[in-house]
């Protein structure tokens, strides 16, 4: 029954399965999980086996004599045996889990030049993720982006670990990308940390795993693990202020003239809000609304016109903009690469 | 005796007098019946909520309530969890204990009959306060049954639903504490002559330790709920991080209640199973002393494992390891129980009538819930599967596979005593198989969707995640389960009129409740019986071979 579990998921979607680890931490959790499944599976077979045997062997038959079966009140040696055996299993499990605990929960070091380690502060917000890039390779970064986390992959020589500091701006959330790490909560008033590391480039999916209100279901996570050269290119682009394309002056003016700027920041302009996602390099992101819809002209138009149609209950209201305003703003957004 | 009972039935007073009698009664038997009826009513309501939840999750990106789906779904799972724990699980067990404990120990009533009535009515009142939220503009609360701060703060939950939730639980909690005090006093002070604490029926022993847990666990919840109400209504800042409060504190307070709570919901069931299995295997309970010690062990250890619900909040590594070790320790006394039940069946002559059918269902299903519990206790594994559908699957195996199967076993076992009528065996079998198949189909696949990365409490999911098929099996399972509950309620009601007469002792059982009439008279026993062993009716039926010769 329980051994069936890894088999059941082996042929399926690998994207978010805990049995398809892509990091040292999730790999050691998988080992532990399989050990626990094997122990539980053995107990399951023994107990259900004895149960089935008793049901078949000791069921009441019409040929039974009318008297009661022999009454057995108990047996001290037997009781001691089936107390000691599980105690031994528990003892071994505690030792093994303690080892895994220390393998998985790594304390973040201080950023050092040449460490090729990435430090990011993750801010959980209803219902999206803010990423404050702090340091890479000991160098201060100081830019903010949203919803799509980019990390470098390691190789045989350099591990390129990623250390996340987890805080919340409102309620409790939980950061969970199953193939990269177990979950860690983001709790108001507390600062948590976690560690990611992988050698496999690709897109890793996940989502918020602690109920956080109306749109908890659509607080999705995307982690792009990239080759170091790609990652550096992305990093350099993110550090620049926003592109200032004169051909979309109208859209830019419209955006800056509306209340959009109270919540959103576009570096290099007067928009400096910090309540909503930073839009400086909006078009470097593949999705909108924390991974809910693709980030293209059509969805941008829908989102700017009425976000509630895409993500009912989200904290961005519908501003009742005219068709022209929406079009101009979206034209401007499309230049923010 | 039975004839006298039937004659008095014919001359029963007019209905207003009967209603007045039930509303003002302090009789433990009537209160027990009303507790169970209340729980059954809320079971149907909670079940309808569960069906709506399953319907919404059947297809990815579904919106069964249109634009309001996210909020309504969040309200539904909040109510479903709260209802099943506080208004079904605890009342049904307290009700059964209320009815049975005085009868099993040869007492006339509970120690404090008025407190007993207060407990019933506050539980009902608490439930009504919670459900009143449907009439408020914002509707029911959408905070989840463990209501993590600061979601319960005024900033995030502006509507009165959250206040009604907190006050409803506060009120019903007072009733539960009263019940705990009452059971303790009754069991400690009102046992029949000769019935030492070491000779009480096993169900009574488990109720004793459940009551200890109630007294240790519910008051912290009450205090924490008062803090929520103070935060919301008087501007206190217990759970408000911006003003020096701590949302993290709520998690500790809640789980300090919440973990013992799951044992409050299972220990009495261990008691029921320990009564049913011996009678239907025709053997004395194997290893009573070890079973009794295991019950105490569970009650003690369960007070020190609460943070295994909080592995992901970033505890220190040593704290994780302590709570993992403590939680795994619980498996030792629980294992002792499982092995002793099997040893009781072993070598017996097992009769597969309805109570035993459900007891065997309990053994087979609760084992699975227990084993997934071991997996979840192992902290690093929990980092992955915590707050996923794996957990949802796990606790439904313990609460339905464990608590509910056990409760059904108990109701089939004692219904003849309560009503004087037998329940239909045919309907029982239909109920059992529909429930078993539906239950496995509903909650088995949740373990798979959990390890495939599906978090709990999401109102929908994207089609690319590969969770659809598992959710569809779950929903089909729920549809198979649903009629089993209706069959049960139908069986309870129809058998009241047309069930065959039960007689005093239909199962040829051994504890004191079977020595009086079915239903028992208001005074329970004509004369207080004297007890010499744990199975007084065995001694009576086998004077040549009584138990007291063998018990240490």
Quantity of strands of chain A, as a count: 12
Q: How much of the polypeptide of chain B forms β-strand, as a percent range?
A: under 5%
Number of helices of chain B: 17
Q: Which oligomeric state applies?
A: heterodimer
3D shape of chain A:
elongated
> What's the number of domains of chain B?
1
The second-level CATH architecture of chain B is Up-down Bundle
Helical coverage of chain A, percent range: 25-40%
How far apart the termini of chain A lie comes to 51 Å
Radius of gyration computed on alpha carbons of chain A: 27 Å
Give average pLDDT of chain B, whole number: 95
Mean pLDDT of chain A: 94
- In CATH terms, the superfamily of chain B is Cytochrome c oxidase-like, subunit I domain
The radius of gyration over CA of chain B amounts to 23 Å
Order of helices and strands of chain A: HHHEEEEEEEEEEHHEEHHH
Distance between the first and last residues' Cα of chain B: 36 Å
Strand order of the largest sheet of chain A: 3-2-1-5-8
Query: For the largest interface in this structure, which chains are involved and how many residues does each contribute?
Result: A-B, 95 and 97 residues
